[in-house]
Amino acid sequence: MKKLMIVYMLLIGTFVLYVYNTHLRDSPANAWNAQGLQGEITETYVMVTFQSGMDFWKSSLKGFEDAAQLLNVSVEYRGATQYDVQEQVTVLEQVIAKNPAGIAITAINSPEIADTINKAVDGGIPVVLFDSQVPGSKASAFVSTNNYNAGVTAAHEMARLLDQAGEVAVVTLENQLNHQERTAGFADTIRGSYPDIRVVTVVDGKGDRLASKEAAGEIMANYPDVSGIFVTEANGGVGIGEAIRLEKKIGDVQVISFDTDKRTLDMIEEGIISASIAQGAWNMGYWSLHFLFHLQHDLTEQQIMESPGISTLPQYVDTGVTVVTKANVKNYYAQ
Amino acid sequence: MKKLMIVYMLLIGTFVLYVYNTHLRDSPANAWNAQGLQGEITETYVMVTFQSGMDFWKSSLKGFEDAAQLLNVSVEYRGATQYDVQEQVTVLEQVIAKNPAGIAITAINSPEIADTINKAVDGGIPVVLFDSQVPGSKASAFVSTNNYNAGVTAAHEMARLLDQAGEVAVVTLENQLNHQERTAGFADTIRGSYPDIRVVTVVDGKGDRLASKEAAGEIMANYPDVSGIFVTEANGGVGIGEAIRLEKKIGDVQVISFDTDKRTLDMIEEGIISASIAQGAWNMGYWSLHFLFHLQHDLTEQQIMESPGISTLPQYVDTGVTVVTKANVKNYYAQ
Question: Is the ipTM of this complex over 0.95?
Answer without folding.
Answer: no
